[in-house]
Amino acid sequence: MAAKIDPATPATPPPQELLRLYRSMLLIRRFEEKAGQLYGMGLINGFCHLYIGQEAVVTGMQAMAEPADSCITSYRDHGHMLACGLDPKGVMAELTGRADGYSRGKGGSMHMFSREHRFYGGHGIVGAQVPLGIGLGFAHQYRGDGGVAHIYLGDGAVNQGQVYESFNMAALWKLPVVFVIENNLYAMGTASARHAAGDELCARGAAYGIPGERIDGMNVLSVRSAAARALAYARAGAGPFILEMMTYRFRGHSMSDPAKYRSKEEVSEMRDHHDPIDRLRQTLTDRGVIDEAGLKEIDRTIKACVAAAAEFAQASPEPAASELWTDVLTEA
Amino acid sequence: MPIEILMPALSPTMREGRLARWLKAEGDAIKSGDALAEIETDKATMELESVEDGILGRILVPAETDGVPVNTPLALLLLEGESPPAAAQTQTPTTANPPPPVIPTAPSPPAPTARAAPTATHRQTVRDALRDAMAEEMRRDPDVFLIGEEVGQYQGAYKISQGLLDEFGPKRIIDTPITEMGFTGLACGAAFSGLKPIVEFMTFNFSLQAIDHILNSAAKTRYMSGGQLSCPIVFRGPNGAAARVGAQHSQDFSSWYAHCPGLKVVAPWSAADAKGLLKSAIRDPDPVVVLENELLYGQTFDVPDDPDFVIPFGQAEIVRPGSHVTLVAWSRMVQVALDAAQILKAEGIEAEVINLRSLRPLDIGTLVASVQKTNRIVTVEEGWPVAGIAAEIAAQIVEQAFDWLDAPPTRVCGADVPLPYAATLERLALPQPDTVAAAARAVCYRHNDGGAA
Questions:
Q1: Which candidate among A221, A320, B45, B268 keeps its CA 20 to 30 Å from the CA of B123?
Q2: Which residues on B lie below 8 Å from A161 (Cβ)?
Q3: Is the predicted ipTM greater than 0.90, yes or no?
C-alpha cells in the first residue's frame, strides 16, 4: 500500500500558478528569516519553531485546497498560517506578543487561529492536533459541506497513541481528512532511525486500510500533485489518506537548538542541493516563465511585505492589563 | 431440600429488580444453564439462569412484579426425588417464607426545602431527567450530538441514553471505540468548528485518558485564540465512588476540574438539578464538566414540567434551612448531609444544608450569608482532602467571613487513601452521616454522650 517516493512526473501547472507557488514559498522563507532576526533582538520570546526548508509542503497542499477545507497543525505553524491566507502583520504581531496579534498577544508562536481562514491552530501538545483534526473532518461530514480537513503532524508525533486512535476512527467512519506527515527526519533531536520502527511512516495507516504515499516534500510540484490525489480521495467520501512528505528543516528544532545531533555537512548538503525554493526558481527560469529582473522584483515585493509586518509587529501596543481577564470564558 | 432461586444482584449498585416474565413453567424439567426468567434492572434486561439440574417447583414471585429486592426467593428448584411443597404454602409467598428483606430504600426522603415552590412537577429518576435534558436539547438544536462508548445500540452503559438512538439515529448518537483520548479530541475539534458535542465518559475515571484535551484543547483555546475560537462542549458521566468497584473506578474529580480556568463544573444531586444543570450545560458556549453520580441515577425526585426549566450556573440551593451550623455538600453528599441534619435535629441542632450544585463558578455569596447566620461551617466532600473543593471553601470563608466564625471551618472528606474494596473499609473511607454529625457537634462545641442515640 505504501509506495516509494512518488516516481511519476508531477503535472506542470500553468505559469501563473508556478509564480504563485514561488511567491507563497518565498513569503514563508522571508517571514521566518525575519522572525529569527526579531528573536535574536529579543522582540520575540519563548518557543519559536521556524519552517525554513519545509515551505514546499504546506504550499503544495494549500495549492489544491478548496474554500470549504480546514487546516490544523502542530507548533511549527507560521508557514501554515501564511499559506492559509492569514495576514503576515497579524502573525508577526502575535509573535511579538502585541495587541494586534491574531490572539491579541495571548497565544504566541504556537497558538494562533483564524476562523475566517478555517485555520484551527497552532497546537503545542505533540499529536493533539490529530484527533482535533479528525473532529474538523467529522464536522465537514456532519454538515455535508464538502470540505476536507488537512491535518499536519511531524515524524515525532507519529509515535503518539492518539494518532492511532484517530487513524482508527477516521477510517472506521470514512472521515474526509488527509494526514500530512511532515517527515523532517528528526523528532526534535532524535533521528527517525532512533525513534520510529519500520521504514515508512506512510505505511502506519495500513492496518486501518488507509492508503499512504511517500512524497518528495522538497519539490512543491510533487507535493501539489500528491495533494490533488489525496484530497480528491477524501473529498469523494473514500475516507482518510496519508501523505508522508520527506522534508528537512534548515534551522534548529527551536531557537535554542544545540545542533549536536546532525552534522553541518548534512545540513549544507540539503541547503545547497535540495532547497525547494531554489528548485522552483530553476524551473521558472528553465521554462522561461520569468527572467532575473522579474525574480528580483518578486523578492523586493516580498521583502517589503515582511518588513512592513515586522514594523507593524513592533509598533503594535502591548496588550492592555485588562486583557488578562478577557476570553477565559464567553462573556455574556 | 429444594433449592431457592434468589433474585440476583446484576450490577454493583443493584438493590432491586423487576421480574419481567418466567421462561419456564412450574413442573418443567430444568438443565443447568437454562434461562428461567427475565429480570429487568434499571440498567438492563438479563436472563436468570439455573445453576442446577432439576424440576421447577413453585414459582414464588409472579411475572411482572416490580421492586423485588435482591436475594428474595423467586422460585424453588426440586432436585431428583423431591416433591413440591404444598401449593397452599406458596400461593402467598410472604406468609410461607421469611419476609423478604426490606428494600433499602432511598436513604431518607429529602427534607423540606427552602427552594421556591416550583410550578407543576412530575416524579422522575435522575437517570430519566438526564436523558430528557439531552433529548429536549437535541430536538431544539441540530448541532447537538452525543458521542461516547455504548451510548447507542447498548442504550448507555448506565442506561442514560436509553431510546436516544431510536429518536435521533446514528448520525447524532455516536458509538465510539474504546478510545477516550481520541474521541474527546475529535469532539473538541468538532466543537471548534461550531458543533455542540455531548461527550459521555462511561465513568469520569476514564476521563484521565482524555484529560489533555479537556484542559489543553477545550479549556484553553478560547483564551489562546484571543476569543476567536470557543469550544461549546459538555463532558458528562458518573463521577466518584459507586459501590464496591475499587480504587481505579471510584475517584472524585471535583477538585481536578474545578481547578481549571476555562471550564465550568457542575455536580447535580437531585433529578431537577440533573435536568436543569445539564440543559444549561448544553446551551452554554463554553466547555462544561457535568459530574454525575451512579448511586443517584435510580433515585426519584420532583422535576418541573416546564421544558425550558434550566438552572443557571453559580447558584447554590439551601435544601434545608437551619440556624446552628452550615453543612455544605454537592452531588451524593447532599443526601449524607441531610441525613446528618436529621441526626442533629434529635439533639437540638438545626443544620442548614446547602447543595452547591455548581463548583466553578462557586456561589460563595450563599455560603457567606449562611455563615453569617450560623457562624459555623462544615463541608462534606467525597473526594480527598488535599487541595479539595472543601479546602477552597474554607479559605474563601476565612477570607470573606472571618469575623462571623465561632469555630474553625471544618472538612469531612474522603479518606486520604485509594478507595478500598472491602465493604467495611469502603464505608470508613467515605463521609457518612455520623461522621458529618460528629463534625457538626464539634463546631457547635457540643459533645455527644451517646444519650441522643
A1: B45
A2: 181
A3: yes
